[in-house]
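Thanks for the sequence, V.! I ran Threonylcarbamoyl-AMP synthase right away. Repeating your input here for the record:
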Amino acid sequence: PAGWREAVAAAAGALQAGGLVAVPTDTVYGVACLAQDSAAVRSIYSLKGRNGNKPLAICLGDVERLYRYCRVNVPDELLRDLLPGPVTLVLERSEELNRDLNPFTSLVGVRVPDHPFMRDLARACPGPLALTSANISCQGSTLTVLEFQDLWPQLSLVIDGGPIGDIQSPECRLGSTVVDLSVSGKFSIIRPGCALTPTVEILEKKYGLVPESS
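Predicted structure:
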């Protein structure tokens, strides 16, 4: 579409200047910053009005980049069955990842959204993006840019990708399914999200992983 490259370039420029950018994803609107930029990570926490104990996910443009920032103990094919898609995979983090990002945990959630703009933006940036939903903590997730107008003054740029999903449907506001794959052979669902059933089916039926509680 017209202006696509310009929008990617403008968003990448704002991020590299340390800014926060609101972005459409395949689930809900998000706010992104460069994960390796500690000052920007602090800005995203203060924007959300949350303490630093709730982790931020990282967002990458391609599955293969995951190996740089995480220790992967599942088959590559499993990653590619779930990503790109509305799933956050929680894995052991590698030394490459900024220590100021979620310093209280050795794990990190990783997203490769099934959204062409987000993937192009992630590819245009030097390292991973830190990504969180575009809302104040404890408020509902947002499916249009107008729904988080109160955050606009604190953002460098807002990318309007139009409404995401069905604004009337509560299911569309669930966000990604968050699954912990850090323990070999097991999985645990941290947040059911919007893709729970297909995700569990792939993990159990195709790869024989067992739920952590069993």
